[in-house]
Amino acid sequence: MELSQFIQNLMNGLAIGSVYAIFALGYTLVFSILGIINFAHGAVFTLGAYFTYTLVVGQFENNGLLKGVNLFPDGSPFSGQPLTFALATLLGATLAGLVAVLIERLAFRPMRSRGADPLLALVSSLGVALVIVNLIQLLVGAEIYNFPSNAYGDTPPALSFTLGGKIVIIRTVQVIIFAVSLVMLAVLGYVIGRTKIGKALRAVAESPTTASLLGISVDRFILITFFLSGFLGGLAGTLVGTAFGVAGPYFGVVYGLKGLAVIVLGGLGSIPGAVLGGLVIGLAEAFVPSQYSAYKDAVAFALLFVILLVRPQGLLGRSAIQKV
Amino acid sequence: MTDFLSTYGFLIVTMLQAGLLGLSLYFPLQAGQLSLASPGFYSLGGYVAAILLTNPAFAGLRDTLGNAMFPLTWLVAAVLAGLLGLLVGVPALRLRGIYLALATIAFVEVLRVISLNLSITGGAIGLFGIPQPFGIVDRWQYVFIFGPLLILTLLFARQMERSRVGRALRAIREDELAADAMGVPPTRYKVLAFVTGAVLAGIVGAMSAPLLSSWNARQGTFDASIAILAFVLIGGSRHTWGPVVGGALLTAVPEVLRFLADWRLVINGLVLVVASLYLPQGIVGALEKLGRPRPPQRPTPVKPAEVRP
After folding, report:
1. Which of A140-154, B4-18, B85-99, B181-195 has the lowest average pLDDT?
2. What pLDDT, in 10s, does the model give residues B245-264?
3. Is the dihedral of CA A41, A42, A43, A47 positive or negative?
4. What residues of B are in contact with residue A124 (Cβ under 8 Å)?
């Protein structure tokens, strides 16, 4: 492989891998506290992208019940500047986080308080995902919506430089995705590792009962966890949406599944594991030779299957001791 | 009657089919193993039947066998699904709980991507023009194919539950370590339950290929995995009838909700949420609870007499 091609693939892999990482962190946070997989996470991802799109563009002109409604008849205040676009992204992610909080209140908490079979959480979270996805379809249709090219100001579409006589082109949006994901990971690492909230979250993850005996309001921290999870999911959705377009109500499904592969690869419930798993899967996909690109979507799952058989606790996970 | 059958005949067949797929997940669940692999084996069975019934390589065999070709496809699908189940099950069943669920989801996805890319499976377009068995002209007549299979499977499940195998599976579900200590080899029984489910899903797939008259990679997806899990859990995961009732009802819900037009799928999602919240034991479990006499009311505790020194 030529060096220019290598760098190109590396950048593709890092950009998508870092998105996988922040998206999968949303799964990991919820899993480490409740021990369940929230199948609605992929739908929250989709929702985040749609929220940001709504803020930046203000209307969905193609189809659905909201066709013809324009939120900003005089042009969106969020469009055209890097800073305002960043603000819209954060707002979109925040809204997604609030939806995740709502999901916890309506679909997970009642089940916990009844002591239902934890497997049922899989079914009810999938029910929530169905509701969200079909509501999106009902409201704005199934068309692909692309962010306008000037949405984040007049940045050049790509950076190019020559290397060993070959031109290497890196899309600006990939650099942005990678940078934003890194910043997000750093912030999250700080919040969980260094702040009081993070300490409480870790305590709840270790043992909800002990944490509540120590005066930590477990329910409140579960809500915070869901908010963080939804925020990360929504942010990841916006990032993917800016790079490849907001591709219809179902575009979170693939990411939802790959996120599962990521968290298992890294180790269920492990935060550094989710980051590592995301990057590994992103890079593995980017380096699939082009003649096998049809099998690209299977890479993550083949990796998942193999890792489960060889090292079920994942790359960085702790193996739980089975107590009798 | 003809009107009723032409309108709802296909729905009734798919209700039976859903019940059968629910049962295929119910078998491993009896041993406490959450496997979501059924759509993979279902898809495999369908492809086996579709290939045997349409591929020119088997034209001679089809001419010789005539209608006996269809039972042959069921048999081949059952054997291949069973073998694949053994191949996947032996390593995968060392995993527990959510890990097994995720491994089986990965298995279904890998199979899906492979079937999308092979030429023998027709790639993304799939296979079509699958002939109808036994001169079936209307799709409701598939009741006579799926119905007997459902009855046989229910009888089989009932016999199995009462047998040594059934007791072993329940012992493993309640406590794998204790079962092992009592001389029940967990891995062997778990693989047995898993393969039973795989064989059933494979046969259902082979029967469904002519029903749909075409077969493609959309038949075995992650969504189907969770849908089948919903059949079992909402029907009642501790009772043989649960998956059948759950499959039939949940398949009928979107049809019943047809009057809601565009809101139908939204409400369908809500039904799943509400059912998991309010029917934690499943429909059959809730009915059973209704039928059981209520436990006697606890007598109100008598206040201890105040003792003064």
Report:
1. A140-154
2. 988 988 888 888 777 777 87
3. positive
4. 272-273, 276-277
Task: Tokens for B141, please give them.
Answer: 């007549």
Digit-coded pLDDT (tens) for B50-71: 999 988 888 888 888 888 889 9
Kindly provide the b/e burial profile for residues A310-322, where b requires at least 16 CB atoms within 10 angstroms of the residue's own CB: eebbbbbbeeeee
pTM of the model: 0.84
Kindly determine whether residue B271 and residue A106, on different chains, have CB atoms separated by under 8 Å: no
Q: How confident is the model at residue B22 (pLDDT cuts 50, 70, 90)?
A: very high
In this predicted model, what pLDDT tens digit does every residue of B218-252 receive, in sequence order? 888 877 888 888 888 888 888 888 899 988 988 88
Closest CA to A126 of B236, B253, B306, B224: B224
Look at residue A324 in the predicted model and tell me its pLDDT: 42
Query: Nearest-CA neighbor of B247 among B236, B238, B258?
Result: B236
Write out chain A residues lying below 8 Å of B103, CB-based.
304-305, 308-309
Q: Where are the domains of chain A?
A: 21-251
Residues of A in contact with B237 (CB under 8 A): 117, 119
Long-range CB pairs of A171-174, under 8 A, 24+ apart, other chains included: A171/A243, A173/A242, A173/A243, A174/A11, A174/A12, A174/A15, A174/A243
d(CA B198, CA B190): 12
Please check the confidence at residue A199 and state whether its pLDDT lies above 50: yes
With a CB cutoff of 8 Å and minimum separation 6, the contacts of A69 are A59, A60
Residue identified by tokens 């059934």 is B166
* Interface mutation vs chain A, best among B30, B108, B109, most A CBs within 10 Å: B109
Of A115, A123, A301, the CB nearest to B106: A301
Question: Which of these, A27, A18, A23, lies nearest to A268 by C-alpha position?
Answer: A27
Q: How many other CB atoms sit within 10 Å of the CB of residue B85?
A: 26
pLDDT at B185 over 50: yes
Q: What is the Rg, in whole angstroms, of the alpha carbon atoms belonging to chain A?
A: 20
Give the span between the Cα atoms of A94 and A104, in whole angstroms. Answer: 15
Of A15-24, A28-37, A147-156, the poorest mean pLDDT is in A147-156
Domains of chain B, by residue range, sit at 2-221
Which of B234, B217, B255, B257 shows the shortest CA–CA distance to B8?
Answer: B255
Q: 3-class SS at A192?
A: helix
